[in-house]
Design brief:
Number of strands: 15
GO cellular component, one term: endomembrane system
GO molecular function: SNAP receptor activity; syntaxin binding
Helix content: 40-55%
Subcellular location: Cytoplasm, Perinuclear region; Endomembrane system
Order of helices and strands: EEEEEEEHHHEEEEEEEHEHHHH
Shape: flat
Family: Belongs to the SVAP1 family.
InterPro entries: T_SNARE_dom
Amino acid sequence: MSRDTPIHSWSGSYYVNGEKRWVSGQLTLTRTAVRFTAEPSGGTGGGAGVGGVALASFPLSRIVEIKMESSSFIFSALTVLEHGNVKHWFGSLRPCRAAVYHVLEHFWRERLLSPGDAPPPAPLSKGQELIGLVSGAQRRLADTGRVLDHQGEQFDNMMQGLDKIESDLGVADKLLSELESPPWWPFGKLPWRSQQEAKTAAVAAAKAPPPGGGAKGQRVISSVPAVVWRGEAAAEMRPGSLTLTPSCMELRDAGGRLIHRFLREEVDDVRVHNPYQISVRQRFIGKPDVCFRIISAKMAEALSVLEVQYKKKVELTGEYSTFQATPSTTPGSTDSATSLWGAGAHGSDTEVPVEVPAGDLTQLQLHVLQPAVTEAEAQELKQMLLQLKSLALEAETELERQDEALDVLASSSDRATMSIDKHTRRMRKLL
């Protein structure tokens, strides 16, 4: 169940070279392998089992090349070349060949780019498991701190904008006072009124905030390669990237061109289907919703930011529970901290003999008296916990500062609103 849990599957056919014929079935991508299973009710000639016959199964690490080809046998096909010059042919893929190619190539390349594809290491000790848990919590808190830092910068920019507005309102108050009681002009019509209107328009343009559509100049919190498609149109899968900034979420294609931008307040829900696939939806009244699906081998990096930015909008689906119980890591990822959340539960039972015969005491003494955490691991844990405490205190300080900034922003905006209303009434009297 752990490594055979499918990430994505497609219906299609597989060419059995020994029998010189095509067999219908399901092409499945798992965390570590690609597998093709024949349909239970036919295609193989012999009686297939309840779950179908696995005609091909090979790990991602053995793949040499993935190509879209055509031959004399079929019009178009997807081929996977394995070590040992073994070539697998897949055809009649639905929704289309290109969609399957983009997803397989994405996960295969992410595994190639990983620092190493060695077999799983030996079981970790208690100290190493604890270090992994603390390290994961430390990274999560560091991500939260970065989001808070960007949020604090936005508050600072808002404060500067309000200060400029108050300064402009002060200038407007002086000009209105001169217009209301000119000391030397004896007539009713004021010749400089047109000039004053131009100045007022310039002040209003200066106070107007810039359009929030562009994300240029903003810091990128996280960016991961991904395969993107809109709604249920899986045939339109295309490689690209998912970029998260403090104010929006951007989907771009492989050439860097913008596919769609979700502003932070426009996102209605983020559904997590599994650790590698999410869907983002923006709802509308009277027209279709905008929904995109994103699949990525490095989705865990983006999920840590999404959980902070979109808190109550993140929803875990029923499919996610299958992966939640699996301690495997993502392809191409050396971060084993996520797998240790489940590992901590497995090692909770300690075996300590209640009564030990006197003759066997010397043989079991090393096993029983061996410390679960070494001195070096304890020192490393101590340092990491101190860093974790420091990060938590910094986050608390930043939150308190932002609370104070919010209070100042609220009072400043109230004063600016009152001043604008008062100046508007005075200008109407002058007109």
